[in-house]
Structures are given as structure tokens and as C-alpha cells.
Amino acid sequence: MATSTLVVVPGDEIAQDALPTPTGKKKTLTLGPGLRHIPPNTITTTIAGALATDNRKNAAWIDANSGRYLPTVGDLVIATVQSSAADNFNCAITPNTPYATLPHLAFEGASRKTRPVLLPNSLVYARVVNAGKESSPELTCVDPSTGNSEGLGPLKGGTIFKVSLGMARRLLLRSKGEVTVLDHIGTKVGFEITVGRNGLVHVDGGDVKTVLAVGKAIQETDEQALGEKGQKKLAERILKSL
Amino acid sequence: MAPEATLSHLHRADGSATYSHNGYCIIGAVNGPVEVMRRDELPEEATIEVNVRPAAGVGSPKERHLEMLLHNTLRGIILTRSIPRTLVQITLQVRSLPEEETSCGVSPSLIILPHLLHTALLALLSASIPLSTILTSTLIAIPANSSPLTSPTAPDLLRAKPIRSAHVFAFSADGKMLLNESDGTFNFEEWDEAAETAEQVCCRDEGGVGLGEGMEVDGQEGGNLDVWLREVVNKKVQWETRWKSAK
Known about the structure:
heterodimer; A: CATH 2.40.50.100; 4 helices
């Protein structure tokens, strides 16, 4: 990560020296969200934000925490089942966008005869496998190489909380995301969270009180951008109320 | 006076901005990319919908005219081909107008146009809609018996009455003219001069990137619009990454 952030607006050309210098084996440059390549070798921005680079992966992208979630291949999302068609479920990733398809057979242990039954409005934790702009996004709940679910699948119990896209990204970064409030709460009470890149967090715990407290804690950390001390204080306050 | 802007303050819209300048205050909201109605769907492009709502009453042909101008200008800067078969909905609600708006001698739809363009752009930036470039816009008024006014306030225009002609220009970041609306009587030399002044106000000087230089270009206005826009974006990024420095 660069120490000084370069703030860009759409249409800015990224200078050659601002791009990552490859240190790993990978020599081709990977462009993430917010950047586009104009042949032969111009790289311009399409959104406003801070330029982020990773030298090891030879990747560059624009960090921004606003806007609607756009499905990207490989992202883990929490989708809501809307209806069931002949051989797939129609799922909503974000409101008011075309439904994503989740094949009936894309679950662990599913076969032609034993299909999973998911009622409308049930939640699934899935991975985006196809997010081309030419078709509607496609989801899966299994790892195609092993056939295991690896944590993906229907989410039972608990409830979901909305957070900003940046917060969802931070939660998925684990320790690098600096969300310590959950560790503090986790020392006293048990709960389980599932984070979707589309800005949804699913919390499940022993009782309703814990679930709500944990969800509120994540949302508060997000909205007030609490630092380490702030998060510790928040966790103490919440544990006292439980 | 540089315009004031607040970004991403409406939590239910994908992107939003409130902009106030010279007595005008406009709230902009952007939703997108969302599902488009079948009859508006374009197979290879995003559909753009612009709604302008007046400060009082319901929309009239004047608003429809402004919507058309905004639509045509914004379609040029939104990368519609990267989000095909979707809808980008831009809603602009005028919140307040200066008192002298109707009596200042310039067509009201012309004075409000740069403000609407700026609000729409800020809301698009806030919604992270892919754009090919940014735009900045300004009004140049040429009074009958004094020197041209750059981005004048309504009281300024009232004092300088009668106004012979008024011009609105919008430029992209690389200095390409995106929009020109002119009203009144003028000759080509006057228009050319107005266009040049507007470009100096809107675009950053080639080579010069210092804030101070931007100020000099437009002494009486205090600030170059390109520099101002970057400052707004800077604040947005600082706000979004404030957790990194929080205690």
C-alpha cells in the first residue's frame, strides 16, 4: 500500500510511476474497480476515490465507499431467494436490479433427486461465479473443484443488518480491516456472523438480545468510524447491557 | 464564493449531493445501476433518466427543457456502455432560489443550469457511476454597458441591468466544450471571449496545478471550479477513510 494516497476524479490519467511495481512472479497488471484501460497504454479512472496499489499482486484499483454494489466474480454475497424456477433460484443481491440465478444443483450434496428447498425470502450465502455485463449474475454455493460447500449455503436463524460496502470489505479483510469490536464482544458471548460483499451482515447467536447487540455494534462502528479505543469502549458498553 | 457541497447524505439513495451557490440550493439523488423498464431498455447502453423538480409546484415545460439539456450532456460523460441494460436515475430537487431570480433579466432556466449540472455530477460521483470525465460549468453574462460578469449572483445581475446576452458553458476536465446555451443578442467576438473566460474558470490551467494559480485566473470569484471539485472529492475520500486514523 502506498503511504500517501492519490485522490482521483473520473477521467484522470494514472501516471506510470503511480502504478504498482511488480515484485512477485506476476508481470501482467491487474486493474480493479474504477480503472479502465484505453489501448495502447493509457490507464484512466472512472470513479472518484483514492488510488490503491498492491505491488505483490501487481494490482491497482480505486478505493471508494459509496454507490451500489456491483457483482464481481469471486465475491461472497448474501442473496435473498425471490422465487424458484425450473432448475434455479432467482435471488436478489441488491434491490431493484435483475435477479441473479442460483442453480438448484449448486449446493453441497444436491442431485437431480434431492434438490434443496428454499422458500421465497430465505437467505443464502453464495459466491458470484459469473458477473458479465451481458447476462444476469450467476451464483453458486459449492466449490466446483471439491464439491464442498466451504461455509456457503442457506443461512438459518438470526437476522441481517445493513452496513456500508466499505465496512463489509473491512470485515472480510479480518485483522487488516481493524474491526476489533467483535473480538471484544466474542470473549464474553458466543455468536456467528456472515459477511456479504453486497453490504449485508448476517448475525446469529443464542438469543435475540445478543443478535441485536452484535448487529448494532457493527453498524455503530461503521457509521461513527470508531477507532480501536472507540470500539473497545463500545464493546464494554454492550457487554454491560447484556 | 466557491460553491458548497455535501455528499452522500441521503442514506436510501445510492448517491446524493446537496449543492448551494449564489442563493441556489439543489438536492441531487442518483439511483443506479438499477433495473430498467422494458420499453426504455437499450441493448448496449445504460438508460439515463433525469428528473428536475422545481422549488414550488410541479414540473412544467421549463423543467422538461432543462432535463433534456442535462440528459444530453450527462450521456456524454457517463460510460453508458459499461453498464448496458440498466437505468441511472438522476433526481434534482431545487430547494431554494434567490429572491431576484425572476427580475434579474436573464432567463431563469439559463441561470440555474450550471448549478443543476454541478449537482448532478456530484451525485453521480457519490453514487460511483462510471464516468469518462468530470464536467464544470459556469454562466457568463454580458451587460449592455459594463464588462462581462463571470458566474454572477442574482443581485449582481440586477445591478448590471440591462443584460444583453447570457451564456452557459460546460467543459470536460480536458477542456472540451460539452454544452453551450446562449441567450440574447451578441456577435461572434463576444461569444468567443465569453467561451474563453468560461474555460479559464472551469478548467485547470495546463501544467499549473497549484491552488494559488487557480485563484489568480478568476480573482473576483475566488477559485477555479476544477480545483474546487477536486477539493470536494478529497473531502469525500477523507470522510470515507476516517476509520483508518480514528482512535
